[in-house]
Design goal:
This protein is mainly α and 279 residues long. The chain is 80% helix and 0% strand. Helix 5 packs antiparallel against helix 7.
C-alpha cells in the first residue's frame, strides 16, 4: 500500500522524475541516518566491511533501478515498462537458487506466475508499445531491483532493518545525485510542492514501503517479497478512485483480482510449508 502512493504523488508533482527520486532518497536518508547513529551506534561500529560494502552496493542498485525505470518511461509505454520491471521476481528466483538453493514450492511458483499474468492483464489495459531501447532499459531496471532485493535477503539475516535501510538509502541518494549531476538535471528551484511530494514519497513509499520489504526479507523468501510488489498497481488503482475519481477499466479490475489470487496462493504455500516443517 505504501509504495503504491508513488503514482498519486508523481501525478501531483511538476518536477522531473529524477528530481523526485533524489528528494525521496534524500528525505529518507535525513530521517533514518541520524536515527541509526543515535540508537544503533554500536551495531554500526561493529559492522564488518563486507556487510557495509554489500549495503552500499544494494543502495547503488536501488538508485540505478529508479533511474532506469523512469528513463524507460521516456522511450516506451507505461504498460511495457511496468510488465518488464515486474520480471524482477524471475531474476530473484534464479539468483536465490544459485546462491542459496532457495526456491518457492509448486504452489508458490504458481502464485508467482498467476500474479505476473495479472500484471500483464493490467498493463494490457494501457496498451503496449515503445522502442526496443526503452524495453531494454526497463529490463535493466528489473535486474537492478533484483540485485537490491537479493542483497537485502542475504544481509538482513544479521543486520537490523534500521542500519541496513539507512545505509541503503544514503547510498541510493548519493547514486541518484551523481546521476543528476552527470545528466545535467537541476535539483533546485522546483518549489515547495515538489519538496512536499518528495517527503511524501520518502515517508509512504520508502519508509512504509521499501523498509517494510527490507524488514520482511529476514523472515520471507526474496521471491515472495518480489511477488507482493505486484500489488502496487492494484492499490494505485484504489487511490486513483478515491482521490482522482479515475475509474479503472474492467481489464484492470480483472487483472487486479488475478494478482490478489496469486499473492494469496503464495502466502498459502508458505503457511503450508511452515506447518509441514512443524509436524
Amino acid at each position: 500500500m505504501g509504495v503504491s502512493v508513488s503514482a498519486l504523488l508523481a501525478r501531483w508533482s511538476t518536477a522531473p522524475s529524477l528530481v523526485l527520486v533524489v528528494y525521496r532518497m534524500a528525505f529518507a536518508s535525513l530521517i533514518l541516518v541520524p536515527w541509526a547513529l543515535l540508537f544503533h551506534r554500536q551495531e554500526l561500529k561493529s559492522l564488518p566491511w563486507r556487510q557495509l560494502l554489500l549495503c552500499l552496493v544494494s543502495g547503488a542498485f536501488l538508485g540505478l533501478h529508479f533511474f532506469a525505470y523512469f528513463t524507460a518511461l521516456e522511450y516506451t509505454s507505461i504498460a511495457s515498462a511496468v510488465v518488464l520491471v515486474d520480471t524482477e521476481v524471475f531474476w530473484v528466483c534464479i539468483a536465490m537458487f544459485l546462491l542459496r538453493g532457495e526456491l518457492p514450492g509448486r504452489l508458490g511458483l504458481g502464485g508467482i506466475l498467476l500474479s505476473f499474468v495479472g500484471s500483464v492483464v493490467v498493463a494490457l489495459s494501457g496498451g503496449f508499445g515503445g522502442s526496443f531501447i526503452g524495453n531494454l532499459i526497463a529490463l535493466a531496471g528489473a535486474a537492478f531491483m533484483a540485485v537490491y532485493t537479493v542483497i537485502g535477503r542475504l544481509v538482513r539475516t544479521s543486520l537490523s532493518t534500521t542500519v541496513y535501510t539507512a545505509l541503503v538509502y544514503a547510498a541510493g541518494c548519493l547514486t541518484t545525485v551523481l546521476i543528476a549531476l552527470v545528466t545535467g538535471v537541476s535539483l533546485t528551484g522546483w518549489g515547495g510542492e515538489n519538496l512536499a511530494a518528495g517527503l511524501g514519497l520518502a515517508v509512504f513509499c520508502t519508509l512504509l514501503g521499501h523498509s517494510v520489504f527490507s524488514w520482511g526479507l529476514k523472515y520471507e523468501k526474496a521471491s515472495y517479497i518480489s511477488t507482493v510488489k505486484f500489488l502496487e498497481p492494484v492499490f494505485a488503482s484504489v487511490w486513483g478512485i478515491l482521490f482522482l475519481q479515475e475509474v479503472p477499466s474492467l481489464a484492470t479490475v480483472l487483472g487486479g483480482a488475478v494478482i490478489l489470487g496469486g499473492v494469496v496462493m503464495y502466502s498459502l504455500s508458505d503457511t503450508r510449508q511452515a506447518r509441514i516443517g512443524q509436524s
